[in-house]
Amino acid sequence: MRDQAKVVIIGGGIVGVSLLYALAREGWKDVVLVEKGELTSGSTWHAAGIVPVLTPSLGVAHIYWHSIKTYRQSHHDPEIDFNGWRASGGARLAVTERELQWCRHVASMGASVGFDIGMVSREEVEQMHPHANVTDALGAVYSPHCCSVDPAMACHMMAKRARLEGAEISLRNRVIGLTQTSGDEWLVETEKGTIRAQHVVNSAGCYAKKIARMAGTDIPLVSLKHQYFVTDELAELDASGPELPILRDSIVGGYYRQEQKSMLIGPWEFDNIDAAWGGAAPQWGSENELFTDDLQRIEHYVLKSMERLPFIANAGVKTVVNGAIPFTPDGNPLMGPAYGLRNFWHCCGSNIGIAQGPGMGHFMAQQMIYGDAEINMLEFDPRRFGTYATEDYAFKKAVDVYSHYARPAMHGESRPAGRPARVTPIYREQQKRGAIFMEAHGWERPRWFSLDGRTEDYSYHHNNIFDVVGNECRAVRERVGIMDISSFSKFEVSGVDAAAFMDRVCANKLPASPGRIGLTQILNESGRVFSEMTITRLTEYAFYLISGALAEVRDQAYLARHRGDMDVTIKNLSSDMGALVIAGPRSRDLLAHLTLADLTNASFKWLTMQEIDVAGIPVRALRVNYVGELGWELHVAMDRLADLYAAVLEAGAAYSVADFGAYAMNSLRLEKAYHGWGHELTNELNLIQAGMERFVDTSKSFIGLDATLKAQQDACDSRIVYCEVDIDDADALGGESCRVGEKVIGLITSGGYGHCVGKALAFAWVENDYAHPGAQFDVDILGRDQRATVLAGPAYDALNEAVKI
Ligand SMILES: Cc1cc2nc3c(=O)[nH]c(=O)nc-3n(C[C@H](O)[C@H](O)[C@H](O)COP(=O)(O)OP(=O)(O)OC[C@H]3O[C@@H](n4cnc5c(N)ncnc54)[C@H](O)[C@@H]3O)c2cc1C
Q1: 358 lines ligand 1 (CB under 6 A)
Q2: Considering the domain 717-805 in this protein, what is its CATH number?
Q3: Ligand 1 atom at shortest distance from the alpha carbon of 17
Q4: Is the pLDDT assigned to residue 637 strictly greater than 90?
Q5: Where in the chain is the domain with CATH 3.30.9.10?
Q6: What is the reported pLDDT for 203?
């Protein structure tokens, strides 16, 4: 075994091996994978091998699709000799109207990723799967690309490919220690010697938490038990012909696939979910480990599966497999840099790793080598979690994800497991006022206010809170609204070099004088968007930064990484500072009751900040907001937030001040054509493509400048556009495919209803030919083509007058 390598990967399951191959193929040949047992001896060997493609997550769909292409190509590659691929196709049954909506949304989204997918009728399912009883199905989403692979063969195939590319695998060799040198290298201590590596990747499956801790960090990861059973052989099945399509439903809550002449059935139980190893991490000695069969736990589902597949009713059970799966709190894998460590990466936490492995490896390798992947990595970044994601939180969330695996989540659904993790001091008060919360980086953020006790009837169509949200929007546009935005991330950057540092970090010019506010994106070296911040200059040497809630850990890491030896202090104030936005044409009148400060436009202009007293409470008042109205963000010490809220409500009664939430904010920002970080501003796009060129100052040096200049010169082939969609009972929400005729020309990045302009609005990422005002294309919304027209400017207040009055 070599003693030096560019990268050491820990773990020889499907994920680690896939990354090994992807790195070597992309040109990092000096890579070693270290595995304590044999390849596949963790969770990989016992998997059911299903590779689906039906998911409501765009990023996950990209990952699946890459895996499927890899398996399919390998099967057809004579040099690789991979016989473990079964092209069966797969369908997800819809047994309720809601599930039908979900299926239609998934079909539209899959088309935007580029694979064959579509809705099929019950009769078509019956033709494809004559043994299934699908009389309860209203339809299904189907893709011919869904397939299955033999997990062990798949893993060995990827290992063979990696070795052919020059990568090395060291088996029966446990990593026993990890130490970072002062030069940012890693000393990877193994049973067979120490390897000095530039990068280390944690792909240790259920052991990944142990490895993280070995390196001095932590991840929210738990292992849960999952079982499938295989029936005895069935006379009705032909092992030599084409396989039956894989079926999924929410009744058994699982999957049914043909395994030779048997059926393999795996239920995702709705309750009684069991932690593997009693909730602890596996012992190092664990290898090819299975747990005792627990058919009693899944008895109900076994009986239900007989209703779905009556022909198995008399078949015995040949095999039961009860194994461990790593789970994260949101069910997505962890792919990206570890917080607080240099050159240490996680690529783990996949609970469907056979399907995700090759795709994870591919996009992770892109990120490691080029600094960015082609897909939006935000939903996979390990730093999307913070210290709030304790073991207890991770476990509750993971169990919740598991129990809903087979039950499609509707748009907007926000389940209570593990919550609340982070609350502001007005959480209870807002609850009393009807707040219905969503979770944002652990924080409880009001999403809408139920004034009459109604609960949301989740739907992809306009639903029973459509008018409620509309009223919140109108309150902001016509009177004054108040929202708790304390969940946003907040930092203070100060020191002698603060201005030079921030100038280097920000793509836009810095606010020049104390009290000025500016909006800026911060970029990766590749020129693509890493984050977006509102920056207030406090003094010559200090800045106040506000960014998205999900950005907290990532932004802190970015700032720390780029600080170098500059004289700069970075303080994370996210939990110390609360913030209320008070916006609307009467916001000035309302605040005038509470402060002696001169709020007139002449004295307090748009994009300026003043430190003032409101109701006797010192606040940083920022005349800025994300809803496009006259208004202020009041940033205040968290322990005074409740007093401030109470005072604003009291004074606001005269103006019928209304609470509003994130749904309304989204509607209002769409009307103003404000881009959304994580949607229109992602690591997939540079600022030229994103249509944010006016926020770039190329006369100065900043991170990503060279790539931005290059992007300015090169003709980009696709751009973000803002459009109106001709639909009245639903909206484009994000991920839907945009088409001209049969050709997919782009996708929706975010959308919703503009309640005050009475229009369905969306941002779309489309081919250049359609990136001009007046261009038209169709958006597949819930199975119907809806005409979208590119707009020249914001649907509301195009001249930007409301914010400046
Ligand atoms: C019953 C069941 C059915 C499943 N069905 C499917 C399915 O149909 N489709 C699907 O996609 N997924 C399925 N899965 C999930 C799938 O098995 C996992 O998601 C996947 O195997 C995870 O792969 P991995 O590479 O992350 O982890 P692992 O395969 O566990 O690999 C991690 C490796 O790291 C090694 N390691 C740990 N610590 C060290 C150390 N200190 N030094 C060296 N090496 C170390 C371990 O030995 C192990 O080999 C199923 C799981 C179960 C239990």
Answers
A1: no
A2: 2.40.30.110
A3: 25
A4: yes
A5: 4-327
A6: 98
Domain 4-327 CATH assignment equals 3.30.9.10: yes
- DSSP H or E stretch at residue 572: strand 569-572
d(CA 307, CA 94): 16
60 Cβ inside 6 Å of ligand 1: no
Residue 466 has pLDDT above 90, yes or no: yes
Percent of the chain with pLDDT over 70: 100
Is 11 near ligand 1, meaning CB less than 6 Å away?
yes
Q: Are residues 248 and 309 in contact, defined by beta-carbon separation less than 8 angstroms?
A: no
Ligand 1 near 205 CB (within 6 A): yes
Q: Ligand 1, residues 352, 356, 364, 380: which to mutate, most atoms within 8 A of Cβ? A: 352
159 Cβ inside 6 Å of ligand 1:
no
In this structure, the residue with its CA closest to atom 4 of ligand 1 is 47
pLDDT category at 329 given cuts 50, 70, 90 is: very high
CA of 14 to the centre of ligand 1 (A): 7
Q: Is the C-beta atom of 170 inside 6 A of ligand 1? A: no
CA of 94 to the centre of ligand 1 (A): 30
Is the pLDDT at 1 greater than 90? The verdict is no
Nearest C-alpha neighbor of 328 from the set 418, 255, 412, 406: 418
Domain(s) of CATH 2.40.30.110: residues in the chain = 717-805
Could you identify the atom of ligand 1 that is nearest to the CA of residue 176? 41
For residues 515 and 500, what is the distance between their CA atoms, to the nearest angstrom? 18
Residue 706 has pLDDT above 90, yes or no: yes
Q: Tell me which residue of 256, 53, 263 sits closest to 141, measured CA to CA.
A: 53
Residue ranges, CATH 3.30.70.1400, the chain: 489-572
Q: Which amino acid is at 572?
A: N
Q: Does domain 489-572 match CATH 2.60.120.380?
A: no
CA angle, residues 281, 287, 289, in degrees to nearest 5: 80
For residue 702, name the pLDDT band (cuts at 50, 70, 90). very high
Cβ of 162 closer than 6 Å to ligand 1, yes or no, is no
State how far the Cα of 58 lies from the Cα of 408, in Å rounded to an integer: 15
Beta bridge pairs of residue 750? 763
